[in-house]
Write a structure and sequence with these properties.
mainly alpha; two-stranded antiparallel sheet; 21 helices; 2 strands; 2% strand
């Protein structure tokens, strides 16, 4: 019941907000209330999953592989909870005084509908339903790109739509091939059927899925749509997208890991793609002077760490990838919240045009410092433990070249964070003096986001143990398959496939 409620609640809220069209303050309060309730539902699922329970809900009471089945294990529950928390922070920070009433009224129903798609994507036990949820989220993202209504947002939408349409076609083609060789797209059924399929067809299907998911995760060289689009989004919406949207592609790769483990070549490609993404992404970030564009290239780099850990396919590597995904989502959202405030207070997106005087008496600098140190991987912040987990897995697998590339990327990450600090926060001699704008205060959501980054840093041990348990579930998917297969079936299907 909790699972169905978490999926349906944001969809109902989206429909109500669209039909009702309330004033911006009412819309904001209603959206915050729905997001808060979703956090409670997600935490309930997280607690149950942490106890080893797999919540399964079969829509229409058809036995798998028929019908629609949702199954929430540790991995699914973690990503649902992560999105619920980031959604709540984003809708709290998205306010009429800063972003305009029209932006709120347009964004709220779209965010709710995208949330329905994300919860469905994280919970579904069927790859075709994953495709449907992907498309729902993408359609919402295309429209959210137009919420600012600027010429730049319209121009940025074209490459996003074209590239993601190509990725979706590859996704669909891969699903068609999988269905042809296995007779099912239900994950529990695929885990049993996939090893006996012809090796060449297995590799072709996996290659199409990996390219599709790699594009949606913004993995090098499939990443260039993201730095063009994220800077055009409304600030808090960009923070939510940076925190969770690219992780949808990473989650999809994690979810099909039991299939990927059947092909060593595909895993090897993922390891090298991850290492190159980590280095090339941060090098591109260093050349940027628009903060949000710089952070977008950083997302490309950080996804590389996750994909490299995932490609190792060991429990340690997968656990490092999961921990790193959680850390990066919180940190990158916090940095985007800071970037939004900096841009508004300086009336400029160019770091070179920013001045510390524009901040007045502000907590932006400490919030940025916490997130920047965490992103750079300095101890005792969460990024240090995330990188340590990935490095440990790489050492165990003797991936010395890949680890060298990650080490270089870490150095350049710190350099790019220092670059932002120098231009936005460091008092410099000369340059234009900017009078601080009166009446500006940090949104409570920003302080909460920085607090969550600190909380994860201090709770790194328990969080990593949870990630390790989730990784073990992926390495041994038998309990997941058994839980899905045990769902009550329709009488007409009792004599069909088990």
């Amino acid at each position: 019941m909790t699972l169905a409620a978490a999926f349906l609640l944001p969809g109902v809220a989206a429909i109500v907000l669209w039909l009702w069209r309330p004033p911006a303050p009412v819309s904001r309060r209603a959206t915050i209330a729905v997001a808060a309730l979703l956090v409670l539902l997600a935490l309930r699922l997280l607690v149950l999953a942490g106890q080893g329970e797999i919540a399964v809900h079969g829509f229409g009471s058809w036995r798998p592989p028929y019908g629609v089945v949702f199954a929430v294990d540790r991995l699914s529950a973690l990503f649902i909870a992560l999105h619920a928390v980031l959604l709540l922070l984003s809708v709290v920070i998205l306010r009429a005084s800063a972003h305009g009433e029209l932006a709120l009224r347009r964004a709220h129903p779209l965010l709710m509908l995208a949330t329905m798609g994300l919860v469905g994507a994280f919970a579904t036990g069927d790859l075709f339903n994953l495709f449907v949820m992907f498309e729902l989220v993408l359609v919402c993202s295309y429209v959210l790109l137009q919420v600012p209504g600027s010429g730049r947002s319209v121009a940025a939408a074209l490459p996003v739509v074209v590239i993601n349409l190509v990725a979706s076609l590859l996704f669909l083609a891969g699903l068609g091939l999988l269905y042809g060789i296995c007779g099912s797209l239900n994950l529990a059924d695929l885990i049993a059927q996939f090893p006996s399929a012809p090796a060449s067809l297995r590799r072709a299907a996996l290659a199409m899925l990996v390219v599709a998911f790699g594009t949606k995760a913004a993995l090098v060289p499939l990443c260039f749509w993201m730095p063009a689009s994220y800077p055009t989004l409304c600030g808090p919406v960009a923070a939510l997208f940076a925190g969770i949207m690219t992780k949808l592609g990473v989650y999809a790769l994690l979810r099909i890991l039991p299939l990927l483990r059947a092909d060593a070549l595909v895993l090897e490609i993922l390891v090298w793609a991850g290492a190159l993404s980590a280095l090339l992404g941060v090098l591109a970030a260093l050349s940027q002077y628009e903060m949000r564009r710089l952070l977008a290239f950083h997302s490309v780099s950080q996804v590389g760490y996750m994909v490299l850990g995932l490609g190792l396919a060991s429990t340690a590597g997968i656990a490092g990838a999961i921990f790193f995904a959680l850390h990066h989502s919180l940190v990158k959202s916090t940095l985007y919240f800071v970037a939004d405030e900096l841009e508004r207070r300086n009336s400029s997106r160019d770091l070179r045009a920013m001045h510390p005087n524009a901040l007045g008496s502000s907590l932006l600098a400490p919030c940025f410092g916490v997130a920047a140190f965490a992103l750079a991987g300095l101890p005792p912040f969460s990024g240090f433990f995330g990188k340590l987990a990935v490095f440990r897995a790489g050492i165990e697998d003797e991936r010395w070249v890949g680890l060298a590339l990650l080490l270089l990327a870490s150095v350049f990450t710190l350099a790019s964070m220092l670059k932002i600090w120098h231009f936005a926060f460091h008092t410099r001699a000369g340059g234009a003096s900017t009078t601080p704008r009166p009446g500006l205060a940090e949104p409570r959501g920003l302080l909460a986001a920085a607090g969550l980054v600190l909380a994860m840093s201090f709770a790194a041990g328990p969080v990593y143990r949870y990630a390790e348990a989730a990784a073990a579930d992926l390495v041994d998917p038998a309990p997941y398959s058994e839980a899905v297969r045990a769902v009550a079936g329709h009488p007409l299907q009792e004599e069909g496939r088990p």
